[in-house]
Automatic annotation (TrEMBL), chain A:
Family: Belongs to the cytochrome ubiquinol oxidase subunit 2 family.
Protein origin, superkingdom: Bacteria
This protein's UniProt keywords: Cell membrane, Electron transport, Heme, Iron, Membrane, Metal-binding, Transmembrane, Transmembrane helix, Transport
Key word Ligase present: no
Bilayer-crossing regions: 13-31, 82-104, 125-153, 165-186, 207-228, 266-289, 296-319, 339-363
Protein name (record): Cytochrome d ubiquinol oxidase subunit II
NCBIfam families: cydB
Compartments it resides in: Cell membrane
Transcription regulation as UniProt keyword: no
InterPro entries listed in its UniProt record: Cyt-d_oxidase_su2 (IPR003317)
From TrEMBL, chain B:
Name used for this protein in its record: Cytochrome ubiquinol oxidase subunit I
Record carries keyword Disulfide bond: no
Alphabetically ordered keywords of this record: Cell inner membrane, Cell membrane, Electron transport, Heme, Iron, Membrane, Metal-binding, Transmembrane, Transmembrane helix, Transport
Membrane topology: Multi-pass membrane protein
InterPro entries hit by this protein: Cyt-d_ubiquinol_oxidase_su_1
Electron transport recorded as keyword: yes
Family: Belongs to the cytochrome ubiquinol oxidase subunit 1 family.
Domain of life: Bacteria
Stored Pfam families: Cyt_bd_oxida_I
Membrane-spanning parts: 20-43, 55-74, 94-118, 130-153, 192-210, 222-240, 390-411, 423-446, 473-496
Subcellular location: Cell inner membrane
Length: 382, 533
């Protein structure tokens, strides 16, 4: 395909970055709504307060969730083997995530339609599950990716997964899950503290400060664990970034702490964990100082840093195999074809700016503090 | 070997998810456009009743949309979860339209739906109208890209098998987009969605008139629904015929099964109105036929033959033998990528590789299949005839029924006779479930009719499944069935409640006529104040 103006290797790298953009986009944008959901039963005590929270994220949460849907779609389109292996391998974990994602839209929509205490309390817990479970499990999934998943491919590229659901719950993976949950709760708290007033905002500050401090500690612990107790993967054979996909054509070696190797090869990558710490510390300080927008920006920066840290440490791996390391999927050997990557890039370059523009406009239209009074004016408030 | 129980359960799960998702999607598509039309009328005439109508139908739309989102994400994930070999094998082609759907359509719809509900007091009249149209546009574009993806499974153009990567890869993306099967499916499916929305609004408005409630709003909604419904019913039938016509080019077996034509009829073929299966469930023992019609419908000519099932099985057998060669050649290339002779041969025979894979059901070493196994694999290419035969006739009958139904009401509306005949209004309400019967039949025909292929001629369904275990499927299937059933009951209950409460909103009508149920913001009462912990 000599007519394609970008070479295959560059396109693969671009799509790896774009995948990161989409997943970080979901963690930041969707994280607002997941975090608010996770705090719903605790930060808000009365029905009035809970309605304030639901209507705070109500107008924008559906658009925010599309970042995840698009992330899934982008994995399918740009890295089909990764989509095939991870979604089928983590089958029961995916089912649990789906449970949470099914509960969210109906929870938002159904809760306000009946004026009954038990009905509303039930949906509050459904929305709580919908906020906590994906935040936790997606983090557990990242932890498992760092540990390597028990799968191998045969020579027709059919995947065989030899693990089970409970094997996903290893201590390091659970730690990753908690880091993820912590950063998302911090994000939710930053949103609540930034756009509400009174006791609701105060409670959000308390929870957000706690979650932020805990996340900083757990993230540091995670780094230590990766250095001392987790095997990192590295390709030991020559890499041809322009070759047709074939995950079986490489040799892979494991070394303790190997996930840190990238930081010595490419020192600039250290910026990612630094941003993670700086962002979260900023968020905690912002909450304590009662700053509004800066707190949310700092928290978002922290999420950007933490998710990037995981992605950069893994580079160029997408999903290492713990049982047959040679079957590991990397961005060089598990991508779509040259042509598909190029077409998808064109489409993305066209639509992503448009999406960002109208999303920004919608957020602008819906800006401002949400209170009980502002709800009374809207015929469709939740 | 592949565990056929897992394959069957995966098929059940996918069918259940897809058909459940498709309860909500067509209504979303139809209602979004009709709401946009009503709101446009409001902006142009300034009459509050149109705004009230937009809000009322919008509330029902919202509940339905939430269910659509809840089931849609499951659809997207299921490809990778349950059909992982499919995802690898055709992801290079199939993934792109799915991702573009997200970029171009779903993002638009999901972002602006928030403003549709929450932006009434923050946007100008025209501003809000633009938002409503953008939601409708998003819903329609969504259907376009999903059907481009699905159309490719029915008619896999613009792609080629790559022996080095063991998968289908895009060669011509423009061909994938302008795939005639996809385009025909898109217009047919979207019209069906419009019809569904029109029937929904019409039926509930009929109920209001029977109960003599909200008469002004109901009458106006019925006029919109009758005209929109007539136009969509006409187009759904005409465009459905178009989709039948193109299918004969690529899916002759599906058409033969729909027509229960076991043996090739001399041109011009008759069209079978009804038929009764023979003693063994095979070729019909009795049928009523309209001469020439079959040829006219499916080939648009009186001279072209329509091949019957038996003849197509014979053709499949030939292709399976070619497929064995393709399979063996592929093995040679996999063992020695530098084998130029094998590559040259593969160039010629690769289109039949999928037929070779049909033998995987019987043995791993496809190349050594016996004549009997080849015969069995060829017989496998016949989908179940009678379910297809009847669902097709149900769908088609309903299509014509809706043309007559809306033509009648269009006439009555133009005469101002909307409220004069109670039995007719009852009929107007009773048709409510029928669009779903037609729509689900349509999908059944499209998907069940393409078996045993998940991608026509390219990949057999059984070969596309993930290597999951029996209990994985049992857990997930029972989980989905339970959760979906509960949610469905709740949704129906809420819709009934919303309809009972009728159109009302605090912005435009000070007094609500139903104190029990308030769509608008809730007043804080002692009962709701002390909630939870």
């Amino acid at each position: 395909m000599s007519t394609i103006p970008l070479d295959y290797e560059t396109l693969r790298l671009i799509w790896w970055v774009l995948l990161g953009v989409l997943l970080i986009g979901f963690a930041i944008m969707g994280g607002r709504d997941l975090g608010v959901g996770a705090l719903l039963p605790f930060a808000a005590r009365t029905d009035e307060e809970r309605r304030v929270l639901l209507n705070l994220v109500g107008p924008t949460w559906e658009g925010n969730q599309v970042w995840l849907i698009l992330g899934g779609g982008a994995i399918f389109a740009a890295f089909p083997p990764l989509y095939a292996v991870s979604f089928s391998g983590f089958y029961l974990a995916m089912i649990v995530i789906l449970l949470a994602f099914i509960l969210r839209p109906v929870g938002f929509k159904f809760r306000g339609k009946i004026k009954d205490v038990r009905w509303r309390a039930a949906w509050d817990w459904a929305l709580f599950i919908g906020g906590v479970v994906p935040s936790l499990i997606l983090g557990v999934a990242v932890g498992n990716v760092l540990l390597g998943a028990p799968f191998h491919l045969d020579d027709t590229m059919r995947a065989f997964y030899t693990g089970n659901f409970f094997m996903l719950l290893m201590p390091f993976a659970l730690l990753s899950g908690l880091v993820s949950l912590g950063m998302i709760v911090t994000q939710g708290a930053a949103v609540i503290a930034g756009r509400t007033t009174g006791p609701l905002a105060e409670r959000a500050r308390t929870y957000g400060t706690l979650a932020g401090i805990l996340t900083i500690a757990l993230f540091a612990l995670g780094g230590l664990w990766v250095a001392l107790g987790v095997d990192g993967y590295a390709i030991t054979s020559a890499v041809d970034g322009n070759a047709a996909i074939n995950p079986l054509a490489k040799a892979v070696a494991l070394t303790r702490g190997g996930w840190l190797a990238n930081y010595s090869h490419y020192p600039w990558m250290v910026a990612a964990p630094v941003l993670g710490f700086v962002g979260l510390i900023g968020a905690v300080l912002g909450l304590l100082a009662r700053l509004r927008l800066p707190t949310l920006l700092a928290s978002s920066l922290g999420i950007f840093g933490i998710v990037s840290t995981a992605g950069l440490s893994l580079f160029p791996f997408l999903l290492p195999s713990s049982t047959v390391p040679e079957s590991s999927l990397t961005l060089w050997d598990a991508s779509s074809s040259h042509l598909t990557l190029f077409i998808m890039l064109l489409v993305t370059c066209f639509f992503l700016p448009i999406i960002l523009a109208y999303t920004a406009w919608v957020f602008r239209v819906m800006r401002g503090t949400v209170s009980t009074q502002s709800l009374e004016k809207n015929p469709n408030a939740y | 070997m592949i565990d056929m129980t897992v394959v069957e359960l995966s098929r059940w799960q996918f069918a259940a998810t897809a058909m459940y998702h498709f309860i909500f999607v067509p209504l979303t598509i139809g209602l979004s456009v009709m709401m946009a039309i009503m709101e446009s009328t409001y902006v142009m005439t300034g009459r509050e009743v149109w705004r009230k109508a937009t809000l009322f139908w919008g509330t029902l739309f919202g509940v339905n949309f939430a269910m659509g989102v809840a089931t849609g994400i499951v659809m997207e994930f299921q490809f990778g979860m349950n059909w992982s070999y499919y995802s690898h094998y055709v992801g290079d082609v199939f993934g792109a339209p799915l991702a573009i759907e997200g970029l171009m359509a779903f993002f638009l719809e999901a972002t602006f739906i928030g403003l549709f509900f929450f932006g009434w007091d923050r946007l100008s009249k025209v501003g809000h109208l633009v938002v409503t149209w953008l939601v409708a546009l998003g819903a329609n574009f969504s259907a376009l890209w999903i059907l481009i993806a699905n159309g490719w499974m029915q008619n896999p153009v613009g792609a080629k098998f790559n022996p080095d990567t063991m998968r289908m890869e895009v060669t011509d993306f423009v061909a994938v987009i302008f795939n005639q099967v996809a385009q025909a499916k898109f217009v047919h499916t979207v019209s069906a969605g419009y019809l569904c929305g029109a029937v929904f609004i019409f039926a509930i408005s009929s109920l209001f008139l029977l109960q003599q409630r909200h008469v002004e709003l109901a009458k106006r909604s019925m006029v919109v629904a009758a005209s929109f419904g007539l136009a969509s019913a006409l187009s759904v039938v005409v465009l459905g015929d178009e989709s039948g016509y193109v299918a004969t080019e690529h899916q002759k077996m599906k058409i033969a099964a729909i027509e229960a034509s076991y043996h090739t009829e001399p041109a011009p073929a008759p069209w079978t109105v009804i038929a009764i299966p023979g003693p063994d469930g095979g070729a019909p023992s009795f049928s009523i036929q309209v001469p020439w019609m079959g040829g006219l419908i499916t080939t648009r000519s009186l001279t072209q033959e329509l091949p019957g099932i038996e003849e197509l099985v014979g053709r499949a057998e030939d292709r399976i033998r070619e497929g064995m060669v393709a399979y063996d050649t592929l093995q040679e290339i996999r063992t020695n990528p530098d084998n130029a002779a094998a590559r040259a041969r593969f160039e010629e025979v690769w289109p039949d590789l999928g037929y070779g894979l049909l033998l995987k059901k019987y043995r791993d070493d496809v190349g050594n299949a016996t004549d009997e196994e080849i015969r069995m694999a060829a017989e496998d290419t016949v989908p179940d005839v009678w379910p297809l035969f009847w669902t097709f006739r149900i769908m088609m009958g309903l299509g014509f029924f809706f043309i007559a139904f809306f033509a009648l009401w269009f006439y009555r509306a133009s005469r101002g006779w909307l409220t004069t005949n109670r039995p007719l209004l009852w009929l107007g309400f009773a048709v409510l479930p029928l669009p779903w019967v037609a729509i689900e039949s349509g999908w059944f025909i499209a998907e069940f009719g393409r078996q045993p292929w998940v991608v026509e001629g390219v990949l057999p369904t059984f070969y596309a499944a993930s290597g999951l275990h029996f209990w994985d499927l049992v857990i997930s299937l029972s989980f989905f069935v339970t959760l979906y059933s509960i949610l469905f009951v709740i949704m129906i209950m809420l819709m009934v409640k919303i309809i009972k409460a009728g159109p009302q909103d605090k912005l435009f009508a000070a007094e609500a006529d139903d104190q029990d149920f308030v769509i608008a913001a809730l007043p804080v009462t002692p009962a709701t104040k002390e909630l939870g912990s």
